[in-house]
Every structure is written in C-alpha cells, then in structure tokens.
Amino acid sequence: MSFFDKIKSAIFGKAEAAPQTSAPAGTPAPTASPAAPAAPAPTAAAPAPTGNVDVASILDAAVKQNGQKLDWKHSIVDLLKALNLDSSLSARKELAGELGYTGDTSDSATMNIWLHKAVIKKLSENGGKVPADLLD
C-alpha cells in the first residue's frame, strides 16, 4: 500500500465507520426484492467511496482524540500525527517521491509545505471535501 493510500484509508475509513443516520420514525425499512441479487460486500482493497467525505471534520476529530495540540491545516507532520501515521523525515521523503516532488528533499521545510498542499489537493481529487482556503 502506498503512503498516500494509508492517509486516504485513515481518513476515508473513518468516514465509512461513522454511524449512518436512520430513517425518520414511521418510515418503513427498505426490503430486498427476491428477484434482485445481493450486492457484493466491499473488500479491504476496494477504493474509497467517491462521495464528499468531510476531511476537515474527520481530521478535527482525530486531533481531539489524539490529545496533542496539532495544526493539521498547516503542517503535514501534524496531519500525519493526527492519523497515527509515521511522520518521520524518511516517511515524508517517501511520500514526496510518491507524489512527484522534484525539489531538494534535504530542504525539509520547503518539502513539507509542498507535501501538505499536495496531500490536501489529492484528498480533494479522491472524493474528500476540504476547506477552500486549503486548496490555494
């Protein structure tokens, strides 16, 4: 699994695990038609749903659960820590290579800024709803 897939899985997996809202009282539960075949169960390798997953609310909740003061909106390290993923320099260099970073990986500050923007953009492209100000 690629490093970005780990990020996506951590975010989109939390969205899938979120409790579904139930139908209003008095609404009959849908029944399966005997003629309709059952839909196959999703597998772990299945891609994340292409709905608008609220990335900000998931990351805000992850930060709160983590208990540390993390600024995921501005820091790739904090974003990774909020998701309980490896935030080491070597992990970030791996992610940078995967996402096509062509700059100097020894300049970690510049790489981190680029990485944060690239990850946020890629989450958006993969069905994540992110704050507009982070997509600049």
What does this structure look like?
By secondary structure, this protein is an all-alpha fold. It has a domain at 1-14 and 52-126. It is built from five helices and two strands, in the order H-E-H-H-H-H-E. It has helices at residues 3-17, 55-66, 76-82, 89-99, 108-125; strands at 53-54, 128-129. Strands 1-2 form a two-stranded parallel ribbon. Helix 4 crosses helix 5. The longest helix is centred in the C-terminal third of the chain and has 18 residues, at 108-125. It is globular and about 35 Å long. The two termini are 28 Å apart. Residues 20-49 have low confidence and may be disordered.
- Summing up helix and strand content along with how strands pair, one would put the structural category as mainly alpha
Distance between the ends = 28 Å
Q: What is the percent of helical residues? A: 40-55%
Q: What radius of gyration results from the CA coordinates?
A: 18 Å
Largest sheet: 2 strands, parallel
Number of β-strand runs? 2
| Beta-strand residue percentage | under 5%
Low-confidence spans? 20-49
Count the helices. How many?
5
Mean pLDDT: 82
Query: Reading side by side through the largest sheet, how are the strands ordered?
Result: 1-2
Order of helices and strands: HEHHHHE
Shape: globular
Write the layout of secondary structure elements.
Layout: H1 3-17, E1 53-54, H2 55-66, H3 76-82, H4 89-99, H5 108-125, E2 128-129
Parallel strand pairs: 1-2
